[in-house]
Amino acid sequence: MTDRASELRAQGRDIISLSVGEPDFPTPPHVIAAAKAALDAGDTRYTPVVGTKALREAAALHFQRDLGIAADPSNVIVTAGGKQAIFEAIAATVSPGDEVIVPSPWWVSYPQMVRFCGGTVVPLRTHAKDNFRFSPGALEALITPATNWLMLNSPGNPTGAVYPADMLRGIGEVLRRHPQVLVLSDDIYAPLSYTGQPHATLAVECPDLADRVLTVSGVSKSHAMTG
Q: Across the chain, what does the average pLDDT equal?
């Protein structure tokens, strides 16, 4: 979809792409300087699979400071972008017959990753009149004994849907009744706030469910480091 959108733009077409989320601001100078310094220092070798100790400690600090999640560095895994983290989680846990609830409209890669791993995508439809947010009742109506994951993307791509704390607590009430359901909380857009309201995330609003929540974060959107 992204390649096709680029082709049409090159032809002079006015295209709005609802696929890849590309920041519209430059990479900060201090990030560029740090990348150059790392190259000059020879930091170009293999690292531990889960990421270097220093990077995992920095990521844990980010989770605590920016998301409110008290994450020990030992519980942090570094991947080559959030997409790899999501895919690895799905690949490790989804088998044929498993169902994954995905709110729609969705980010283009969610359903493809589920299907690649043999899972069944269960669309949870949302609507503009509800600011593209689903209700706890709508979620519970789709949960079956085969439900394995709920994909929760807030702020969401492509709709921009944001789930406030009270809505997340309502979702948590549903999840407590269905202990087999894991939650992939894709918080990659959390730093891009335009309302001044603090970011809310499920692992914080429902701490008793934190061991069932995989929170994905990163710097690709916040620091324009997608490439």
A: 94
Residue spans per domain, the chain: 31-47+79-216
SS3 179: coil
The DSSP letter of residue 214 is E
**Both structure tokens of 183:** 């939650």
pLDDT 10s digits, 97-156:
999 999 999 999 999 999 999 999 999 999 999 999 999 999 999 999 999 999 999 999
In this structure, what token pair is assigned to residue 7? Answer: 């082709």
pTM comes to 0.90
Q: Are 82 and 113 in contact, with CB atoms under 8 Å apart?
A: no
The span from the CA of 173 to the CA of 140, in Å, is 10
The partner residues of 147 in beta bridges, in order of sequence, read: 99
State the architecture of 31-47+79-216 in CATH terms.
3-Layer(aba) Sandwich (3.40)
Please report the pLDDT score of residue 226 as a whole number.
Answer: 83
Token pair, residue 101, equals 């609830």
- Grade residue 91 by pLDDT with cuts at 50, 70 and 90: very high
* Separation CA 222–CA 200 (nearest Å): 17
Helix (H, G, I), strand (E, B) or coil at 8: helix
Residue with the two structure tokens 């696929």: 19
**SS3 labels along 165-213:** HHHHHHHHHHHHCCCCCEEEEECCCCCCCCCCCCCCCHHHHCHHHHHHE
Measured CA to CA in angstroms, residue 142 lies from 24, 122, 167 at distances of 37, 8, 17
DSSP symbol at 145 = T
